[in-house]
Write a structure and sequence with these properties.
mainly beta, cell outer membrane, five-stranded mixed beta sheet, Maltoporin, Chain A, transmembrane, single chain, 22-stranded antiparallel beta barrel, membrane
Length: 667
């Protein structure tokens, strides 16, 4: 496989650079406070001053808690959950707004560059190895004014590794390998960073093979009609990423490339043994993004060109002689100008154009490549143009030095399939002290239906899903109040309360609910519904004593969107929480995480409260770090409500108990 060859090349390049012990991540609240958060606005700002509610998992936390995936890491944050459906793994949800089979309500970004499939809207969360990340930034709440469609309930920015001091000339690398007992995991990952006065680059490659865990408590999946089948949740992942930045006399050039391939077993095109349960599903994609930045005094001009190709293939029948194949492309261009009117006043003006194409959505025979059906999707496309403006007023930069900042953003979206939409976002930040601030955020969001939701139709199959050309875009309005405080050098906390209203959420429902023979589903817009909630995140950092992180969220939503006894917040726990402990002693360290999911409802019966626990122990030597980690100490798989079709009550996570050995070395 090409991507495995890339990994070998990267690993080979790692033996040349000099030893760089300073590459090890360190933690301090001062460092956390000084981070320039990129996901929160058009201009990076600190956690204290950013005009958004943002949670950050930094490099130190990734390293010390030995997170094995992005999904595992973000579940420790208040307001964030990661679910599975019969069709997909690793579906992130923010503030309880559930996904369909695809991640199209939370935007996935790589260094601020959006990536998602043009046909379904799906953004692949696990397309980069977590060891290649400097941090994970999670913006909670409406973000489509900043990023456009699909940032409906939030955005997750995967920030690639950085040198410890970005102002120095240096070269550094890291190699990491892992194996495990129960799931028979084998993985290798390597990356290299280089920086001089004019050139900075990052390059990484990763490969992972995991035979997986037996499904549920008795290894058998029970489908919608009561049939059973032995199921093993295997996964295979590989990816390659490079990010090159070149400074010239004319301006700053940046080229980002990411390529990934993920194979995994799934629970059918529908949760039926006859629909491919246990066969493999494949997702792959290639993202190329070019940025040019020209500074003119305190103002700047940014031009962006992006091409995003993604493909998905999956089984549709028990013997795997019929498969589905989806391929689509997104071509995106943006021009953004930032005008610094005076030191306290700036204006951002942007124009974007995007073309989304469905190249194919075929049902075919994988043996002879015969195409049975194109599903009404071949060469479907939609164009969308957006105009955006952001007005920022920094009263703390005036002579009076009032500790207030105001940011107002608007976005006008013109999609050729729908009426135009105007959304706005307004934030006020009151800086109470150097270590505390109060934020008020009002935001609106917009998501255009995907090509799949609009046009899909399989004339060969019965009881399938049908698109709906009469769908309307999803919208939302929310208000939130956030308080950030660091009462001492060891403590940090962030408290948020919010209220939100959602309209036209796209759901699946029976087309002919009174028919006993036609079980087909169609996409429809649901009625308006609302939610309110609170979030608390706490960090205590003391290298001589212990590090602690804790989070808790509470959310209550109504049933305004109910259709046939299904509604979004029926399947969302009212309370969930996480706790993490990390202790260092010289070259030794140990960590423990506990994640609690409250009781929730299923379609047939309630699902009781659940929890998972992980523990790890590390020894740092001269050659590298050795780690033993036990995942899922209780050896009990999490149950998730099956809310998409609603004919079975729940699905198991597919994550059993595993004992892993990990070795990491830095060059």
């Amino acid at each position: 496989m090409k991507r495995h060859a890339m990994l070998i090349l990267i690993v080979g390049s790692l033996v040349a650079p000099k030893l760089a012990s300073s590459f090890e991540a360190t933690q301090s609240l001062e460092k956390l406070f000084n981070l320039r958060i990129e996901v929160s606005s058009t201009s990076p700002d600190t956690l204290l001053n950013s005009p958004s509610s943002v949670s950050v998992i930094d490099r130190y936390t990734i390293q010390e808690y030995n997170f094995q995936s992005i999904s595992e890491a973000i579940e420790t944050l208040a307001g964030v959950s990661v679910n599975r459906s019969y069709f997909s793994h690793n579906l992130p949800a923010i503030r309880g707004i559930l996904q369909d089979n695809f991640t199209n309500r939370v935007l996935i970004l790589i260094d601020g560059v959006a990536s998602w499939m043009s046909v379904t809207g799906h953004g692949e969360l696990e397309r980069i190895n977590i060891n290649d990340l400097e941090r994970i930034e999670v913006l909670k709440g409406p973000a489509s004014v900043l990023y456009g469609t699909n940032a409906y309930s939030g955005a997750i920015n995967l920030v690639l590794r950085r040198l410890p001091d970005e102002n120095t000339e240096d070269v550094m690398g890291q190699l990491q390998t892992s194996i495990s007992t129960n799931s028979h995991l084998k993985s290798a990952n390597g990356h290299l960073l280089y920086a001089d006065q004019d050139l900075t680059y990052f390059v990484s490659a990763s490969a992972q093979l995991q035979e997986g865990f037996e499904y549920g408590e008795d290894s058998n999946f029970v489908d919608e009609v009561g049939s059973t089948r032995y199921h093993l949740d295997f996964q295979e992942r590989s990816n390659f990423t490079s990010n090159v930045e070149l400074k010239t006399s004319f301006g700053l050039h940046n080229l980002l490339i990411n390529s990934y391939l993920n194979n995994y077993s799934f629970l059918g095109a529908r949760p039926l043994i006859s629909s491919g349960v246990g066969q493999y599903s494949r997702t792959e994609g290639d993202l190329i993004n070019y940025n040019f930045t020209k500074s003119i005094g305190q103002s700047k001009l940014v031009a962006t060109l992006s091409y995003d190709r993604q493909e998905r293939e999956y089984s549709r029948i028990a013997d795997d002689t019929v498969r589905g194949r989806i391929e689509g492309t997104r071509s995106f261009g943006k021009l953004l100008g930032t005008l610094s009117i005076v030191d306290s006043l700036s204006l951002d003006l942007g124009v974007e154009h995007e073309l989304r194409k469905s190249l194919k959505f075929q049902i075919y025979n994988p043996t002879n490549k015969f195409v049975f059906n194109e599903n009404n999707m071949k060469n479907r496309q939609v164009a969308e143009t957006s105009l955006s403006a952001q007005f920022s007023f920094y009263m703390d930069r005036l002579a009076t030095n009032w500790p207030l900042r105001f940011v107002l953003g608007v976005r006008q979206t013109s999609n050729e399939a729908f009426d135009s939409n105007l959304s706005m976002r307004a934030t006020g930040v009151y800086t109470i002290s150097k270590t505390s601030s109060l934020k008020f955020v009002y935001g609106q969001s917009y998501r255009a239906p995907s090509l799949f939701e609009l046009y899909y139709e399989d004339s060969r199959s019965v009881n399938e899903i049908y698109g709906n050309e009469d769908l309307e875009p999803e919208t939302s309005d929310s208000t939130e109040l956030a308080y950030i405080l660091s009462p001492s050098k060891n403590w940090f906390l962030q408290m948020t309360v919010f209220q939100a209203e959602f309209d036209n959420k796209i759901i699946r429902t029976r087309r002919l609910p009174n028919s006993s023979s036609d079980l087909s589903l169609g996409f429809v817009n649901s009625n308006k519904f609302s939610a309110r909630g609170s979030e608390l995140e706490i960090k205590y950092i003391n290298s001589e004593l212990i590090d602690v992180m804790a989070s808790i969220q509470s959310i209550d939503g109504d049933d305004g969107d109910a259709v046939n006894n299904k509604y979004n917040f029926k399947f969302v726990p009212e309370v969930s929480s996480s706790v993490g402990l990390n202790k260092k002693f010289r070259r030794l360290s140990g960590s423990f995480t506990y994640h609690h999911i409250g009781k929730t409802e299923g379609m047939l019966e309630s699902i009781p409260a659940q929890s998972t626990m992980n523990a790890s122990f590390s020894i740092r030597g001269n050659s590298g770090t050795h780690t033993i980690k036990v995942q899922n100490l209780q050896n009990k798989q999490i149950e998730y409500p099956e809310y998409i079709r609603g004919n079975i009550n729940s699905l198991y996570s597919g994550q059993g108990q595993d004992i892993m050995y990990d070795f990491s070395t830095i060059f």
